[in-house]
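Hi support team,

I submitted a single chain yesterday and got back a structure, but I'm not sure I'm reading the token output correctly. Could someone confirm the output below corresponds to the sequence I sent? I've pasted both exactly as they appear in my results page.

Thanks,
R.
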Amino acid sequence: MRLVAAFILSGALLTPALAIEGKADQYSNARIEGHVVEPRKLEVTEGRAKDMLKLPQGFSVSVFADNLINPRWIAVGEDGTVYASRRNIGDILMLRDENGDGKADVVKTVASRSDMHGITIHQGKAYMVTAKDVYVADVKADGTLSDLRRIINDLPEAGQHKNRTLAVGPDGMLYIQVASTCNACDESNPENATILQASLDGKTRRIFASGLRNTIGFAWHPVTGALYGMDHGIDWLGDQEHVEELNLIQEGKQYGWPYIYGEGKFNPEDEPPEGITLAQWRDWSEAPLLGYTPHAAPLQMVFYSGQQFPREYQGDALVAMRGSWNRREPSGYEVVRVRFEDGKPVRFEPFMTGFLQKDEQGYGYLGRPVGLAVMRDGSLLVGDDSNGVIYRVTYTGPKEPEATAASAQGGTAPAPATPVGKVSPPASDLAIRLVEPKVQTAALQVTSPKFQANDAIPLTYSAYGDNASPPITWSGAPEGTKSFVVIVDDPDTETAKPYTYWVAYNIPATTTSLREGLQTSPMLQDPKGLMQGRNTRGSVGYTGLKPPVGDPAHRYHIQVFALDRNLDLRAGAMRAEVIEAMKDHVLAEGELVGSFERKQP
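Hi R., thanks for writing in. Yes, this is the structure output for that exact sequence:
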């Protein structure tokens, strides 16, 4: 083991008992000690692996393939062909065991692009992701892939986290992990530190969940259909901070990063947007279900649904922990099991250990587990990207009667067609038609200094222009108005009915206009107290009008509502939540309709 460096950082105390105020400057000064520790790499032989690697009773390990240099993500095709990405090489390997001896006889590169990392197989097609692009290819009868077709070419900048992954959910949508560009910072692109949801052709996408620093490994429970992911903790908060998080990932939810971590702790080095306290951000964020040893570095995650392992493994998850670098006592270097009871995670347990060894020279490692995949025969593949090995774990203990995932969970029904936690779909009508004023009075008069009613909206306010919110003014609010709501809907889109570009609420009653180009923060300081919700893209605040190139002009309804109260909602609320909260509180409403089209790319 080599201690590369140790750093003493000046900062705020991390003690939870002191971390109760909303601003980092209200903490006491303290020192944070961080370490960079590099165990030495041990040479791998099959005999050494069998002697050193430990598994539960009844399991055994063998080498499926070696000399692979840098195997990372693993996927298994419908015919049993194995695919592994190699980040350092930038390609996808095809591995086939043609004689059934548990070892790969064929190893062949079948796709190649710089920074290629994530791969998943779905209905005869392979989907692959690099730092910026998503590709699809047909899987041929011999396991090779057709020419790659790029379906997404504009994923956000990757920064320090360019190892992106993807998977197809039970709803038939493509989910893409887009990590943060940094350790902890205020991202300028709302798609960073998220999981995106995209159509299989890549033509549409939106933010599914946010505040996820680096949820590189995620998967759906085979029985409940719930989406779970392991998020990497922030570095440089100390050896015991912060835990690796197991989250239930739900549509429209945020998970704390970069301001909140672990069990609701405050990050002392970053503050939320002006006007929002750390305590508020914590209250608006989802807490992890379980935490694992800090800095263990969770990578690929799979749910076991094969028939080879004992019945009790059905519906449990397995996670590869690649191993720490920012910790004096190394953590990770193992595969862990997440035990589920009644469809919910209850604890972590060791499954495959022994990669990390300690002797008189300190720590050494036999490998860094990264990729996991369940084979058609129920065995488990475990990829090591440091020594270039993929192991095969089999169960050779006492046999049990065959069991399905449903019977193992007490007769629970199969996975639903859509992921658990999905919020109600947005109402398929304009907001102004979904809420009625309490008393029918004169409508609000809504205008803009930049375009007239039913005229073309300038390019500036589109995604093809500046992405700036349009300036709007309204008048005619009745007595008793306490706040305003603005919702911008496009009913002419084919991808959502309607597609919502802006949700703003708790606009002060004294405000009767909004300037162009408002910040996309969850809460604004001018007008003070204005909160912004999530648009259909999944980001907070206004997103530029973006009808498909060549479509006839779309109509955009800028709808303004006068309310008799402020809405008791968090910043970043969904459109459906805002509309529901508005009901029975609307005093007056009005709209300005404009149009926009994009004839040329």
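A quick pointer for reading it: The CA atoms of residues 80 and 376 lie 6 Å apart. Let us know if anything else looks off.

Best,
Support desk
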